[in-house]
Amino acid sequence: MTQSNNTCERMFAFFLNELPEQETEAFKLHLAACPSCRDEWNNLQRVWQTLPFEMDETDIPDSLKERMFEQISRNIQQPLHAEEQEIADEPFESESPPLQKAKPAAPISKRWTYAAAAVVFAMIGAAAGWGINEYGRSHLAASDRLAAPAKVVDQYALKAFDPDMPAASGHCWIKEQGKSKQLVVQVNGLGRNAGDEAYQVWIVKEGTRFNGGTFQVDDKGSGVLTYDLNSQESGFDRIGITLEPDAKGTKPRGKKVLGTS
Description:
Layout: H1 3-8, H2 11-15, H3 21-33, H4 35-49, E1 53-55, H5 62-77, E2 82-83, E3 101-102, H6 108-125, E4 132-134, H7 142-147, E5 150-160, E6 169-177, E7 180-188, E8 198-205, E9 208-215, E10 223-229, E11 238-244, E12 256-260
Antiparallel strand pairs: 1-4, 2-3, 5-6, 5-12, 6-7, 7-10, 8-9, 8-11, 11-12
């Protein structure tokens, strides 16, 4: 393993403010020079900023930190799921076979992205232990939040479908906590929204289409969406994202830009 890769592995300790002062300063210099680490740092920040929580300034117990790092290490070492089922340009009007999942070896950058989500969700699962107070809408009872840790149970890759946005890409993660599941969507390389335009997520299960929420992207074409999955939507077959004239649609009106592959 190279010196650069050894340094890259300190990303999560840096994110959790666990590095000694001298190593923290050294990693800041590395971060400025390493495009891969900068991308993963930005991914962590985007996902973190979408979470509906407020956090008090309290210390994380050492035992909890150790468990979080162990889980992150396992996630980095495990291969990602890849979706093998192709879907048509107009997939929402007819049924197609469910996605078939394989387990090829993944590039290290994609494993870091998966682990980036894992560390954030590990923090969510530890909420009761270090002072996070929920203020957003939640389907979890208080007892469930205390008893059930959050974990990433699945992930899907999104591929570009619009030739006008060839650089578009994204990932979806399924976060599970107790009996609750949440979809987290992260996208990059999309065109900027004009006026009331919005990107809309569509969840398809057994031929039935569900509205998974809307979002807009920043100046770089990046965006994040979180959506609480109900029992009808869990175990979906595929996901598509369309560019809509506004955020009020109940069915796709615009062109498809991203979808599961």
